[in-house]
Design brief:
heterodimer; A: Rossmann fold; six-stranded parallel β-sheet; globular; B: about 950 residues; alpha/beta; Immunoglobulin-like; ten-stranded mixed β-sheet; 38 strands
């Protein structure tokens, strides 16, 4: 593997992904392992580093055959401390000692990373996927390496969280800071960060056979968590279902909200037309048997589910909650967007796609075509172009 | 080949050149070369350039022009010749590039293939503390965008005329032979116009790329600082003419129009502002040059600039100096009214004298500015200084001053009782001020003339150290209402030298006041010294202030200021409310009333309050107000919203009675009962039924819910309210009071009385508004709209003058805009169209109106109780209903009156107002049954019975 040059003649590089955890359930883990695999296939030497082990119950089992190294720095999660505020905190000796111990430990763990980084050959790249992990990378010695910091959420979502100030602080001097879309990048730039580019997520898969969109079925896939807005979807469905009694809403996924959502469906009188499918390991199969995809999230970054649906030829209806969503779906061309929280509009769009098979087919076909601009090849080429730019 | 070549030009700037060059060498993009071109400096600039080249032989080269060219164009032209990079940028020796500039520009250029990439230029004021930032036309650079031609964005062409914040493909410059014109100021303008027009693609990026260092107090003033020079203006016009020719040749009319707009808004304004300080010959020459150019400006451009800009350009063009010079005062001081104005045929004009010119009438018509509606204390009047004299050498610092205050449309009536005083106050942190009486005040044509003798030497005692600049204001009192003016100097010479004064602290620093004219043209004084010794002391002080002790003192002062701000902040008040006031005992028999966030004494809280008074209950009433307490009841305790007494009253009250919301963050203690009367049934989606709230996370919704959970009782007018408001606010059934709205009791009673008498009675309001008995009264009450008109105010969707003309003989139209919107009516419609927006309570207005015109306002539900005709003028229905937050029911289906969309249909409907009263009678009954079933005329009484009956004496 060491010697294989990739087909574009780009030199093989040492690429480090640094995340909070190597194997915590969720989008970042899927994304980083997908990218790690893609880079490995291109001949790069990849190393996925996690700062801490994932919290209990949130472990994502990794495949046995991964062609790259993984390392987790801490054996267990370090104690959390709050920032020092006021005289009272300064005089709290116990707390101060805890803080000092934590800091010393951070330096120790960062030194481990330094050792890994030193072994890299010139042209190496460190990709920090979450700003929390950057706090350790900042302590490590990255001399001679390109450091890239990422923000895998929309600017608006980040702005509402404590990560906002940390992104501005820790990513200020990285070689490139990458949010998910041009629109997010422009917003970061206007926070006076002039080292910002952007990088979309790659399409996770592209099925050979698309859906024929004839199954009378609207599908939704995602964790049953309030952020995914399944309650909004049910309300919208209650406005659509009476006109289309032969259609079903299939909801894939599980989570803490399931009971409450089932109750809501019953209250809205749509219990009969909603099917609770539970978690699925066969997303492509679920999509192939659907005609319309519904994304009802209250917040998103660059969501994979609608990309997968579009790759399967299934047009989407979504709330326009993030630049990533409008980047993926072109309203009125390969899907529909509704203003955030506007259930009447969301329902109207669902109704349009359900009622009009011809439009559904046209949009589904366009979706499958359009989504290929985020194909794995395209995105890998973008990354390699970025590595080259930073070296010029 | 390097990726980017940066041409750095220098003229006599040896000290700063290395910093500029270093900003290129430090670029994150490594492959960048520097080409220094020295415009034959007389200092060490070229030497420094050569040394830089020797230190970085691979990356820096230095060249010198054989003779000085006098401007930046030629050196840049020479620089382009020497560049070898794929892209070219320009940098001046006193500025710097942002460190990522080259990388960001290169990335954009390669991605798009653009000929020009342009980024944000930031002006840094180097002489100010914290280097004040000033972003150059930032609105052009809010997002990344690529233009296939500059015609897509004419504003880029006309506003961003810098050559330096851009990256050019070198081949593009060469192929199009793009060069800066020789030996002219404003060389950028021509070059960039050529470049924009030649470019096949242009990309704008929001990144900062160029830091333009501004040194206001620099000894050598740059071109833009010397703009008062006539040659400068000539050059500017010449460049404009050349660019106009370019545009004409290509038929680019849109850009030309945008450019004309910019000329009126910007170029002309820069020079006009200096006019009051220039002599007669300068003015004549300036006018002559301008007139020729202005003749070519399209009339349409006048309509697209601010009225005062158009007025100045027009008066200049007409050579009307008497009106132009005062108008320039308004150009400089936007809020000031500097002209006496003229009224003609019910319209208001900036000045008379041009009525025979139709175009001039259009430009000078300032009716929409609403000057004619403002009382004297809301006007900032021009006050021109006409006399400034020392009253003789012996007097030692005494002045005689005189001037005239503009009296527009006779707002200061001839019989008014006038007094005045001159106030001298230190500009910086006004520690003390000194007042002198105005001796004489009299009307003189369309001005008020004044005279004063001011003994500065004897009376004005500055501290001597921090109060260097002194401003002067004349406060004029007109029948007890005062208005403040500033003294405009214009043509009056400030004769005599500095006046002796006696500072309180020390005379070592300064002991004289010297008159001068401020940047805005007003009289001011500067504390100066006559002796050489004082100059040294001043230097010493300056050093002290900038030194360590000074810095410490200043930091201390700023910290103290920050602390004070923190203590008086909302957060601290909230803490006092929760931690102090809420622990005090509840005061029995106290009620805090509030209506519409304290803006009004009105609505159901008022109706309940008045019923309580009528029944003679024994209680303490506390009314909250914001703004002025003027129209609130005298017998109640009045507290200003958000003040400490307000918070204390709320914390200790036994009852809260309100129709909208007390501050969201105030929690209500359990002992207090909150009666939420609400202020109207719902057509638009409310509360958690609004999309914006639905989209919120559970935590955000929970925060909202907390403020709604404070309601102990919520008034209901009909089951429609239960299905909409109560559900949207997630109110439990036990809070709902199905009693109707107290504010509507009066309407129900009016209707009953009308039925008993068999005729309509008009109350006091009709007489107060001067409405003749034979006229029918219509009320126009639209809902709140965010969109503002030209002056950021609400624009009526129909022409009131047309209304007055067509219906003035039959109708009187009352206009009540939402309390957050404001309308201006022209004098032509006086007596026919009346603005009643400022009145607190809408109920008497509803009772007076014989018909209502509305759109989506909840006033429809209340007015329907009167069983009088309604018209729905829903000119923006689709936008309002579909793009907005949505409605609970279809207005078109339920409206108890005709629904019209266009202005013509609106007038048509008004003609048949009488027949509608009959036609829609059934629909109105249905509407009232559906939306107002509990409004029976006894709401206030039943609330008092339920909550306050035990307070009867």
């Amino acid at each position: 593997m060491e010697t294989s040059m990739n087909k574009y003649g780009d030199q093989p590089r040492d690429i480090f992904f640094v995340s909070n955890s190597v194997n915590e359930m969720g989008g970042i883990t899927s994304w980083s392992h997908q990218m790690a695999r893609l880079f490995s296939e291109r001949g790069h030497r990849v190393h996925v580093i996690g700062i801490v082990p994932p919290p209990e119950g949130r472990v994502h089992e990794l495949a046995d055959d991964i062609p790259y190294r993984t390392t987790t720095l801490y054996a267990e999660h370090p104690p959390t401390v709050r920032p020092v505020r006021g005289l009272k905190d300064k005089l709290n000796v116990v707390e101060q000692r805890r803080r000092a111990a934590r800091e010393a430990e951070m330096h120790e763990q960062a030194a481990k990373m330094t050792a890994l980084f030193r072994a890299a050959r010139p042209g190496g790249v460190v990709i920090v996927t979450q700003v929390w992990a950057m706090e350790w990378v900042a302590l490590a010695d990255t001399a001679g390496l390109t450091v890239i910091g990422m923000s895998h959420e929309s600017f608006a979502t980040c702005r509402k969280s404590s990560r906002f100030e940390r992104v501005k602080r820790f990513y200020k001097d990285v070689d490139r800071m990458l949010p998910l879309t041009r629109e997010d990048a422009d917003l970061w730039i206007r926070q006076r960060m002039d080292n910002v580019g952007f990088m979309p997520n790659p399409l996770p898969f592209f099925p050979e056979v698309p859906s024929d969109r004839s199954a009378r079925c609207v599908v939704s896939i995602g964790r049953l968590h309030e952020e995914k807005g399944v309650d909004l979807l049910l309300e919208a469905w209650a406005q659509v279902a009476p006109q289309h009694p032969d259609w079903t809403l299939r909801i894939y996924g599980s989570g803490e909200e399931e009971e409450a959502l089932r109750k809501l469906a019953a209250e809205l009188g749509v219990a009969a037309s909603v099917a609770w499918m539970g978690r699925t390991s066969d997303v492509p199969g679920a999509l192939r048997e659907s005609a319309v995809f519904a994304l009802s999230s209250r917040g998103e970054g660059f969501p994979l589910a609608p990309m997968e649906a579009m790759a399967t030829g299934v047009p989407c209806v979504a709330f326009d909650v993030a630049p990533g969503v409008r980047e993926i779906i072109t309203d009125g061309e390969d899907g529909f967007l509704a203003p955030p929280g506007n259930i009447a509009e969301f329902a109207r769009h669902l109704d349009t796609l359900i009622s009009d098979k011809e439009l559904r087919d046209a949009m589904g076909t366009a979706a499958r075509e359009n989504i290929q601009r985020f194909s794995a090849e395209e995105i890998v080429a973008r990354w390699e172009g970025l590595f080259a730019l930073v070296e010029r | 080949m390097p990726d980017v070549s940066v041409v750095v030009i220098v003229y006599n700037d040896a000290d700063r050149l290395p910093t500029a060059v270093q900003s290129v060498l430090d670029q994150t993009l490594r492959d960048v070369e520097v080409v220094i071109v020295d415009d034959c400096s007389t200092d060490r600039s070229f030497e420094v350039a050569q040394r830089l080249a020797a230190t970085h032989p691979e990356r820096v080269r230095a060249f010198q022009l054989p003779e000085n060219s006098g401007a930046g164009g030629e050196p840049r032209n020479a620089g382009i010749q020497h560049t070898t990079g794929k892209y070219v940028m320009f940098l001046d020796s006193d500025d710097v590039l942002e460190l990522n500039a080259c990388r960001n520009m290169l990335e954009a250029a390669e991605e798009t293939g653009s000929d020009i990439v342009s980024g944000l230029c930031v002006r840094l004021h180097k002489d100010t503390r914290n280097q004040k930032r000033d972003e150059w036309y930032a609105w052009l650079y809010s997002t990344t965008r690529t233009l296939e031609s500059v015609t897509e964005l004419p504003d880029l062409f006309v506003w961003d005329t810098l050559s330096t914040n851009k990256c050019y493909r070198r081949e593009f410059l060469v192929e199009n032979d793009l060069r800066f014109p020789k030996g002219m100021f404003y060389e950028d303008l021509m070059f960039i116009a050529d470049a924009y027009l030649a470019a096949r693609r242009i990309t704008l990026i929001p990144n900062q790329v160029y830091f333009w260092h501004v040194h206001e107090r620099g000894a050598v003033k740059s071109v833009t600082n010397r703009r008062h020079e006539m040659t400068n203006y000539e050059h500017r016009l010449e460049i404009h003419r050349r660019i106009d020719a370019l545009l004409a040749a290509r038929g680019l009319d849109d850009i030309r129009l945008a450019k004309d707009v910019k000329f009126l808004k910007h170029d002309l304004v820069l020079h006009l502002r200096d006019l009051p300080f220039r002599d007669e010959s300068y003015r004549q020459e300036f006018a002559e040059l301008s007139r020729e150019y202005l003749a070519g400006i399209s009339p349409e451009a006048y309509a697209r600039v601010q009225p005062i800009q158009a007025i100045c350009a027009y008066l200049l063009q007409q050579g009307d100096w008497d009106n132009l010079i005062p108008a320039v005062d308004t150009l400089t001081n936007r809020d000031k009214l500097s002209s006496p104005l003229a009224e003609r045929d019910g319209r208001i004009y900036w000045c008379g004298g041009h009525f025979d010119d139709e175009f001039g009438r259009g430009v000078l018509d300032v009716t929409d500015a609403g000057y004619h509606e403002k009382p004297v204390d809301k006007l900032f009047l021009r006050n021109q200084l006409t006399r400034f004299e020392e009253s003789g050498a012996a007097s030692g610092g005494a002045l005689r001053l005189a001037g005239r205050i503009t009296n527009p449309l006779g707002v200061i009536s001839p019989g008014a009782r006038l007094t005045g005083r001159l106030e001298f106050s230190a500009r910086r942190r006004s520690l003390q001020s000194f007042a002198f009486p105005v001796r004489a005040l009299r009307h003189d044509g369309d001005t008020v003339h004044w005279e004063a003798a001011v003994d500065l030497g004897a009376k004005l005692r500055p501290l001597g150290i921090v109060d260097t600049i002194w401003d002067v204001r004349l406060v004029l009192d007109v029948d007890g209402v005062s208005t403040t003016t500033r003294l405009t100097v214009a043509d009056t010479a400030l004769s005599g030298g500095p006046l002796p004064v006696r500072p309180r602290l020390t005379r070592m620093v300064a002991d004289h006041l010297e008159p001068h004219v401020s940047a805005r043209g007003h009289l001011a004084f500067r504390l100066v010294s006559e002796s050489r010794q004082a100059e040294r002391v001043q230097q010493l002080i300056a050093r002290g202030v900038r030194g360590k002790p000074g810095t410490l003192a200043k930091t201390g002062y700023r910290k103290a200021k920050a602390l004070r701000k923190k203590v008086t902040s909302g957060d601290s008040k909230l803490r006092v409310y929760h931690e102090v006031f809420s622990r005090l005992p509840v005061r029995k028999r106290t009620v805090v009333f509030e209506s519409h966030l304290g803006k009004q004494y009105s609505d159901s809280p008022r109706a309940i309050y008045e019923e309580m008074r009528r029944q003679g209950l024994d209680f303490e009433a506390i009314w909250s107000y914001s703004g002025s307490p003027k129209d609130f009841p005298k017998e109640a305790t009045l507290v200003k919203r958000w003040s400490l007494p307000y918070l204390k009253a709320l914390a200790q009250a036994e009852f809260w009675v309100d129709n909208q919301s007390y501050p969201l963050k105030l929690s209500k203690r359990p002992e207090t009962t909150y009666v939420q009367t609400w202020h109207g049934s719902a057509l638009k989606k409310m509360g958690f039924d609004q999309p914006s709230l639905k989209a919120q996370t559970r935590q955000q919704q929970a925060e909202q819910q907390q403020s709604l959970d404070r309601f102990d009782r919520f008034l209901i007018r009909s089951e429609h309210d239960v299905r909409t408001l109560a559900k949207a606010f997630r109110l439990p059934e036990k809070t709902l009071l199905r009693v109707g709205y107290p504010r509507n009791d009066a309407l129900v009673r009016t209707r009953q009385r009308e039925a008993e008498l068999g005729r309509r009675e008009r109350g006091e309001l009709a007489a107060e508004l001067g409405i003749p008995d034979e006229k029918t009264v219509l009320l126009y009450a639209p809902t709140f709209r965010k969109a503002g008109g030209r002056h950021g105010r609400f624009v009526l969707p129909f022409d009131v003058e047309r209304f007055a003309e067509q219906f003035g003989d039959r109708y009187v139209l009352l206009v009540r805009s939402h309390y957050l919107n404001h309308v201006v009516l022209p004098p032509t419609v006086e007596g026919t169209v009346i603005d009643v927006s400022a009145r607190h309570d809408v109920t008497p207005i509803l009772a007076l109106a014989d018909g209502l015109i509305t759109d989506y306002s909840s006033v429809m539900f209340d007015y329907a109780l009167l069983d009088r005709p309604l018209v729905f003028f829903t000119y923006d229905y689709d936008e309002y209903v579909h793009e907005g937050r949505g409605t609970y029911f279809d207005l078109l289906e339920h409206a108890p009156g005709p629904v019209v969309r266009s202005e013509d249909d609106f007038y048509e409907t008004l003609k048949s107002f009488d027949t509608q009263a009959l036609e829609y009678a059934a629909a109105r009954r249905e509407f009232v049954a559906e939306f107002g079933e509990y409004d029976r005329g006894d709401a206030a009484k039943s609330i008092v019975d339920q909550f306050f009956a035990h307070w009867r004496r």
